[in-house]
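Table S2 (text version). Query chain:
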Amino acid sequence: MARQRRSARLQTREARLKLAPRAEPYWYDLERGRAIGYYRGSSGGSWWLREYTDGAYRKRALARTDDKNDADGDRVLSFSDVVRLVLRGRNQDHDEDPARRAVRCDLTVEQALEDYLEARRVRCSSADLAKDRIVIEALIVPTLGDRRRSDLTPEERHRLRHSLFGKIVGDLTTGDLRRWRDSRVPQTDVRELRRRSQATANKLWSLLRAALNLAYQNERTPSDQAWRRIRSFKNVERPQTRFLQGDDCRRLIEAAEPAFGRLVRACLLTGMRLGELLALTVADVGPDYLTVHHSKTGTSRRVPLNAEGARFFQEAIAGRSPQDTVLTQASGAPWSAMRVSRALRQTCKAAKINPPIQFRQLRTTYGSLLLNADAPLSTISELLGHKDTRMTRRHYAHLLWDKLKETVDERLPKFE
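Corresponding structure-token output:
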């Protein structure tokens, strides 16, 4: 006997009447590529059908609902009536049209990810795309390739066992995707290791979900229900808590070779991201400010400079053409993320800063130094290019706690 379709929201008239009226029908996915919709209007409800045919979704009204009148099997249908109608229509209309079914189910996960990278090409750097491609090939759709399975490490065998390579996007279930995501988290009683693994799994899931959503928006797959139900792991992100003091900053600049020292100093004077600094041209340097045209948030902004910063950048652009890059290596070649990372490790070792910092911690050091000098949180948020103060508050939560404690100690009167 075929399984009876049920929907808690649409099954009965009592449940349907609890739904708020809205412009879009309430949809119930009956099968891949077909959904039944319930539209509640001011004069009563109606049943709708949404089908994926010829590469696009099409909607049409079917009948009135039995909200006010009993179902008659013709113009007024109950939920079970409309399910039978749609399934009967499927058998009559589509059995002779295999081309339509092929359109709905030929997209694989790796093809969806490739389409996503191609769509990002117009707004992301080649370095970011290359980094995402490495992550995709290693952790989302790894393959055996020319290697023998016996040559793989246990971790590589684990990744291969849970790979999504070759899976059809339209055939994915919520369980498939949840099992893949959970396979990124090892079974361990070490809470910190589990937290870090869950944070990494969230990043991988965000990348995969973006690719699946793009496939759905481009009408390459009939439904997004399988991944809409999956939620990221909660409370696993940890804010940056390590910042340099003023003496550490000066020691780092002095230990660096001149070209890299200028890059470090520029970050400490502006709080700009590495990509923003490397994209800076002579034309972007004003008398006491810098202009960031392409930021991570997609907006442009001005970064003010103090007297030291203004002198530093004016000296850096003296006698150069407007289109020249301000911060380059000693040879004049542009910096790469890899060269910056290597130079920073060597500089930290020479400056006796242990463990070595990452370049982004120079940016957060800029904010921490301002916060310790009693700069308002909203001002720091603007300077760092955050969309709002929530990100700023997250990064500097422990420093804000220190400020709160200091305020209580200094300003709360004594009652002894």
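Notes on Table S2: Confidence is low (pLDDT under 50) at residues 93-105. The chain has three domains: 13-104, 109-228, 246-409.
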